[in-house]
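New to this. Please check this record:
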Amino acid sequence: MIEDDLRAAFVRHEPLTPSTGPLRAAIDRLAAVRRRRRQRFQAAGVTLALLGALGVGVPQLRPDRPAEGPSLSGRPAGAQSGALNVLLLGVDGFGEEPSYRLADSVLLVHIPADRSRPYLISLPRDLEVSIPGRGTGKLNSAFYSGEPRPDLDAGYDLTRRVVADLTGVRVDAGAVLTFAGLRRITDAVDGVEVCLPTEVRSWHTRRTFPAGCQRLDGAASVDLLRQRRYLPDGAFDRDRNAQRYVAALIRRAVAQDVLTNPVRLTALLSAGGKGLAVDDDGLPLTRLVAVLPELKSVDPVGLSLPVGPPVDNASRLPLDPKLGPAFLAALSEDRLAQWVAQHPEQVNPTR
């Protein structure tokens, strides 16, 4: 009897149920947009990550004339002046469909307005930050807080907002790279030569990376960049090794003439696969490439955001009360050259 009453109630109310057609159509449109965005990002991915990181000019790729239409700043789309900032994130995903969790390498590449040289700035993974909609947490957790998850684009978008709020600078472009993508890119250039100041022992594979310069393939590079447990400064040393790796990768690409050889460049562009996503909405690749030949030096300056000791027992790192605000002011005002001259001890060698 109860079952019959329930059936009758459902029949009476069925006409009142809204159609699922519009909702399904909206979901399909959103999925299509994300697919198109990911495909576009794959095409530009490796080039933006490498060029944006260390500012290597490629005159052959420079457009013959400016693109039509105004830019966000009101200047012609082909023109670009002022300082530029590129956000690079390394996340702890391994497979082709990994469960992305944390962005343990957060690098902000600053290209000053005078185009003197690029600055590679490490932002500590344990830095205490304000995450929109999530309260206070560690910087590396902002990536996983992005919705929907796991998703490279959503994780990047939220991390970009956090970094922009923290630093006070606009993030013009960026890239996200998983360990799987990093391994393939490294192997695509036949390995990189990384120079370490001290020995590094792998917690994961028990491999030993001796002090000095050594050629690393993709698997070895991933192994090195995962290490922090045996290092004297822990995650800070891992950040410095990430800077050394990026510098070594671009030197290898330049030595092989990858960025000016169409065949080699095409092969490298496809190497990242699903382990790479790029944000170039704010600063299209063509505009970034047009800027890079203006750089007076392609040798980067490695820096780390100054932080203080952990707060309580939460292992969260606050901004250094003295050096931190001064550093961020120099970054936002495009005065890093002066800041480095005043604080040479804060420079991280990339060789």
User: Anything to note?
Assistant: The radius of gyration is 23 Å. Confidence is low (pLDDT under 50) at residues 36-79. The longest helix spans residues 21-54.
